[in-house]
Design a protein that fits this description.
The structure holds two protein chains of two kinds. Chain A has helices at 2-11, 13-48, 61-68, 81-89, 116-120, 190-204, 229-232, 262-272, 282-325, 327-335, 340-381, 392-416, 420-425, and strands at 53-57, 93-105, 108-113, 124-127, 135-138, 149-150, 153-154, 162-163, 169-175, 186-189, 254-259, 277-280. Chain A is an alpha+beta fold. Chain A has two domains: 2-45 and 289-425, no CATH class; 53-280, no CATH class. In chain A, helix 11 (340-381) runs antiparallel to helix 12. Chain A is elongated, with a radius of gyration of 31 Å. The two termini of chain A are 25 Å apart. Chain B has a single domain (31-53, 78-209), classed as 3-Layer(aba) Sandwich (Rossmann fold), CATH 3.40.50. Chain B has a six-stranded mixed beta sheet, sandwiched between helices. In chain B, a hairpin with a 2-residue loop joins strand 9 and strand 10 (218-219). The two termini of chain B are 27 Å apart. Classes of the chains: A alpha+beta, B alpha/beta. The A-B interface holds A 1, 3-4, 7-8, 10-11, 328-329, 332-340, 342-343, 346, 419-422, 424 and B 49, 52, 54-56, 74-75, 78-79, 81-83, 85, 87, 89, 93, 95-98, 102, 106-111, 154-155, 158.
Chain lengths: 426, 221
């Protein structure tokens, strides 16, 4: 029986390959949409899970989460400095990590924060933490080595800006991989970010740092670095002024909080939802984003299902024509004494083999495409996107195969009802 | 060896006013050889289909060794045919992509869960007997005469009591046709099988004991 199936498949290998490929691609389309959405959702949820609560100045909650959790640059309003002071002393708070956005270097965001952030994010893989104002700790994916130094680039990546040629950061440590956008971040002491940008503020006397996150995209200051040059030269060796965190500082756009308990988290959220500040659970905002994402997925799913139905219809036609063309063959085999059941089992098996192989290849192709896509997305965003099949997917495969088995049964049953003489005549 | 007996057989097709076949009585002794002749549309193919159980007679009786085909359901007729009939057709119905040997054994492979050991030997022996030197040769690379000889070997491999050939020489040139006719006669007499051949080939018809001449589905005088 397998002789015959193999001989037949070999003889029609071009048609078999095309039908198999069509099925594989149609399957891959559906699998791809499901897997990619799952990867995005899991990846972003894991990225957000490091911090339970984010506190920022009143404004857009979504923007606060995008900027603080996913490190997307945007001008955020600043919190008054007493908020950080209060949170650092609050007994309900285990860790309060201020996040100040500033400059970039080679597309990596430079994040001003405090030394405890490194431990809260998973610790160092090598090197040491901040000791001087000019010390930088890089994320796992940043392509710099310990000992390298760099000038921060003022402005957003990909836009015209200027280099702070007089500011020199030196890489002193590298963090362990976290699977979050922090892997692409360069951490520097918050005081350094204040220092770099406060100078501009003093010079211009504009004081706009209270409206815009430290240093984001304000073009009109910083054209007069020469005056300050002698002052900046010792920047790298300056002590970190810890007292400034609790004193008269320019403020920060966001503070990430690890509370001691869930009750504390809710308490804090309640307390900081006031006129000037907002407190957001990243999960809340993500759920809202998934809602939007879910709609997009539903649209993609409908498109994928539409494509699959069309392919299925086309394939059903091909199969029906195939079986009808083989009526003579079926009739002849039966005339020569092959039992009806075994002839039709053979033909059903042959078609089912093509379909099943196509479906299984489709799952493989879908997985490969999503894995490649997610790897590129991860590289761009730092968010690790887990591309994974779940146990429940076995049932999807089984359902697909059952459907294929039933669908191929249809033309075979038509052939089953035919007398051999009738089939030979046609 | 099978004895054929037909009583009051009438076969009608829905769109035809006249019966396609109307035979009051017919008998053929075991090991008998009969040619079925007549112009096309005279009922030859219907006759072949009825006596091999590929089509069912709605009325009348068709029996081999007293076993009535008319009363059997389709599955049983298939099994009966598998055990008792070897078929040779005008269009050889060999399966491209398979070797001569695989073609000879294909119906047996499908009929038996595992192929009986002696069948393979028998197939090779028969292929040698019909003059196929290379049993592993794919059938689509063979000449038409060779193909029909492979088909003859396939008809005989199951040692059937009845060999039925439907225009076995019609699609072959004279020489190849004569060779196939010789083989059919020789091999069926060696096996002692009953032989029924529908044909226009006068040289083949002349070598058979009985001639059944059909005209509009009836036996002509």
């Amino acid at each position: 029986m397998f002789h015959f199936i193999l001989a037949d498949l070999r003889r029609n290998w071009i048609g078999v390959a095309i039908v198999g490929l069509l099925i594989a691609l149609a399957t891959a389309l559906g699998v791809g949409v499901t897997l990619q959405e799952r990867a995005l959702r899991l990846g972003s949820a894991r990225a957000a899970s490091a911090f339970d609560l984010v506190i920022g100045a009143a404004g857009s909650e979504t923007q606060l989460i995008l900027s603080s959790v996913f490190l997307q640059p945007a001008p955020l309003p600043l919190l008054p400095h007493d908020v950080l002071t209060a949170l650092r002393r609050d007994p309900r708070v285990k860790e309060a990590i201020p996040v100040g956005f500033g400059d970039f270097v080679a597309g990596y965001p430079i994040i001003g924060t405090t030394g405890n952030a490194i431990e809260a994010l998973g610790g160092l893989a090598e090197g040491s933490g901040f000791q001087h104002l000019g010390d930088a700790v890089i994320g796992a994916q940043v392509t710099r080595r310990i000992g390298d130094s760099f000038h921060p680039f003022h402005g957003l990546p990909g836009q015209p800006g200027e280099v702070h040629a007089d500011i020199d950061y030196r890489v002193v440590g590298r963090m362990a991989p976290t699977g979050t956008p922090w892997d692409r971040a360069i951490l520097v002491p918050l005081q350094a970010v204040w220092h770099v940008h406060e100078d501009h503020g003093h010079e211009d006397g504009a004081g706009e740092t209270h409206e815009v996150s430290a240093g984001a995209a304000d073009e009109d200051h910083g054209h007069d670095h020469a005056h300050e040059h002698d002052h900046e030269s010792e920047f790298g060796a300056m002590e970190i002024d810890e007292a400034l965190l609790d004193g008269e500082n320019p403020g920060v756009p966001a503070i990430m909080i690890k509370p001691h308990s869930i009750a504390d988290a809710y308490n804090l959220r309640q307390e900081y939802r006031r006129d000037a500040t907002m407190a957001v659970f990243p999960g809340e905002v993500l759920t809202r984003l998934y809602g939007t994402l879910g709609d997009a997925r539903r649209i993609l799913s409908v498109i994928a299902i539409g494509a699959q139905v069309l392919v299925a219809a086309a394939i059903l036609m091909v199969i029906a024509v195939q079986v009808l063309q083989r009526r003579r063959q079926i009739g002849a085999l039966r005339a020569f004494g092959a039992p009806r059941a075994s002839v039709l089992t053979m033909i059903w098996l042959e078609i089912f083999l093509i379909l099943a192989l196509g479906i299984i290849c489709g799952f493989g192709i879908g997985y490969a495409i999503v894995a490649a896509l997610s790897a590129r997305l991860s590289q761009a965003s730092g968010v690790t996107m887990p591309v994974e099949f779940h146990a429940a997917d076995i049932w999807t495969v089984a359902a697909f195969l059952c459907a294929a088995a039933l669908v191929t049964l249809l033309p075979v049953l038509i052939a089953y009802r035919q007398a051999p003489a009738q089939a030979l005549r046609s | 060896m099978l004895t054929l007996s037909i009583e009051k057989l009438v076969v009608r097709f829905p769109d035809l006013p006249v019966p396609a076949l109307d035979i009051d009585t017919l008998a053929l002794e075991p090991g008998g050889r009969m040619a079925v002749v007549g112009s096309s549309g005279s009922g030859k193919t219907t006759f072949i289909n009825i006596i091999t159980g590929m089509e069912r007679a709605a009325s009348g009786e068709v029996a081999w060794n007293g076993e009535s085909l008319s009363g059997m359901p389709e599955g049983r007729r298939d099994r009966w045919r598998s055990r008792n009939v070897g078929l040779v057709m005008q269009e050889f119905h060999l399966f491209p992509g398979l070797s001569a040997e695989a073609n000879v054994l294909l119906p047996q492979r499908l009929a038996h869960f595992t192929l009986p050991e002696d069948l393979r030997e028998r197939a090779l022996h028969l292929l040698e007997r019909v003059g196929i030197d290379r049993p592993g040769q794919p059938v689509e690379t063979m000449s038409r005469g060779q193909m029909q000889r492979v088909a003859v070997a396939r008809a005989l491999v199951g040692k059937p009591g009845l060999i039925v050939a439907d225009e076995p020489t019609a699609s072959l040139d004279a020489e190849a046709g004569a060779a196939v006719a010789d083989l059919l006669l020789e091999l069926s007499s060696e096996a002692g099988s009953t032989l029924i051949v529908a044909s226009h080939d006068e040289r083949l018809i002349g070598r058979l004991q009985h001639v059944l001449r059909l005209e509009n589905g009836r036996i002509a005088a």
